[in-house]
Structure formats: C-alpha cells, structure tokens
C-alpha cells in the first residue's frame, strides 16, 4: 500500500549554554509544571523500568472503523496537545494515515505513532542523549537536554515526532512539553507506571472497535504475545531493521 496522507538556532551555541548552566536546567512551562525526564517507572512504586518487560502494541486494522478518531482524541485529551489544521507544524503524537492499495484501489486508515523501536534511529542521531530508550523499550525525550536540533525528526522513518513551535499553556503535569523541544507518543508512560493502559488503547476498547491490544511482549501469557504468536502481523518498514514495538494485522 502507498501513503496518501499527510532557521534552527546553532546547535553549538545552545549546547554551550546548557553546559554553562552546570548540568541542571529546569524550564518553567506553566505554574506548577516543569520539564522532567521519564528515566524510571516511578509514579506508583518508584521501581525502575525493567528489561524483563517489552511493551508492545498490536493494531488489527480490520477492527479499525473508517472515520474513527477516538484514539487520536484520547491521546490529545490525555496529554494536552492540540492540532490547528497545519500538518507541517501540528503535533503528531498519533495520527490516522490513509493508505491505498495500488492493485485493488482499496483504502484503509492506519493509526500511526512512535513505533518505540528496539533499535531507534532517533536515539542514534541525538547529539545530547535527549532521545533515549527505557529498559522496557519505551522511547522518550528528556526535555531538559533537548536542544531542538530536530535530527531525530529527520531520522525517524515514521514521521512520528514533532517540534513545539509555540509557547504552551494549560499543560498536563504528567505530560510536560516545551517550546523549542521535540515530542512524540510516550505509550502514556505515566499510565503504564501506574498499571493502566495507554489512553488510546483504553478508548478504542471502550468506545471503538477494540482494534488495539497492548501488553508485555516478553510475557507469553499476555494477550499481545498470544496474538502475535497466533496471527500474521506486520511491522512498518521492517526492512530497516529497527524492530518496532507497534505491529499491525491486516495491513
């Protein structure tokens, strides 16, 4: 199927500025809201993220209704981002991409977000280490040290990251954002660390078609592991060898 949809500041100067701050930077976003790193799973138990867990998402497109955007709305409401009808600058935490089969002419809408790759290209190219992968496979951005160079955006083959161009207000304390930084889907890491499902998965199960199955791929008893073992699934651009944690059925 083929897709139908949809002057940085000098890097050296900003890195020198960060170093001059003594390695500690807190950016005030709004009253009571600061940027922070999701280095550990800490909201409920303060237990560190473990490599024994590999979070994964399976999306069955045969159960994803055309025109449904519940997953997008849930992510937007949970994490406090908005779209203004400008795809070139709007946040891209999750989006519905329309694909057309060149042989049959059939259209299908595909939810696309950060694929939380096992070998993330965004992490490889980040000059400051702001893009990083937790032990449990979730790929995140440390806003303290993101310099807005956007190398990660260029490296990501899924166009899953976006740059914050404007000042922000009314933010969610669990989903800190900041002008001049890069952001993407976090698998709702704050919910996972409190033993809850990502907002998109929950919304799809309750009001949508139940197309999303989420869980620990390392646990053979989890629903996602059993589904991946039973059914044929696809990874977008599997040929790149990035090993995305997001898989699709009936793509």
Concise summary:
This protein has 251 residues and is of the alpha+beta class. The chain is built from 7 helices and 12 strands.
Output the keywords.
Alpha-Beta Plaits; globular; three-stranded antiparallel beta sheet; alpha+beta; single chain; three-stranded mixed beta sheet; 20% helix; 251 residues
Structure description:
This protein has 251 residues and is an alpha+beta fold. The protein has one domain: Alpha-Beta Plaits, CATH 3.30.70. Helix content is 20%, strand content 18%. It has helices at 11-20, 70-79, 121-125, 151-155, 189-192, 199-207, 223-230; strands at 2-3, 28-30, 33-34, 55-60, 94-100, 107-113, 131-133, 139-141, 162-163, 182-183, 212-216, 246-249. It has a 3-stranded antiparallel β-sheet. Helix 2 (70-79) packs across helix 6 (199-207).
Elements, N to C (H/E): EHEEEHEEHEEHEEHHEHE
Estimate the strand proportion. 15-25%
The major pleated sheet works out as: 3 strands, antiparallel
Q: What structural class results from the helix and strand content?
A: alpha+beta
Instruction: Output mean pLDDT.
Output: 84
Residues in helix, %: 10-25%
Q: What name does CATH use for the topology? A: Alpha-Beta Plaits
Radius of gyration: 18 Å
CATH class type: Alpha Beta
Helical segment count:
7
Kindly report the spatial arrangement of strands forming the biggest sheet: 1-5-6
Kindly report how far apart the N and C termini lie: 8 Å
CATH 2nd-level architecture: 2-Layer Sandwich
Q: How many domain modules?
A: 1
Secondary-structure map with pairings?
Elements: E1 2-3, H1 11-20, E2 28-30, E3 33-34, E4 55-60, H2 70-79, E5 94-100, E6 107-113, H3 121-125, E7 131-133, E8 139-141, H4 151-155, E9 162-163, E10 182-183, H5 189-192, H6 199-207, E11 212-216, H7 223-230, E12 246-249
Parallel strand pairs: 4-12
Antiparallel strand pairs: 1-5, 2-3, 4-11, 5-6, 7-8, 9-10
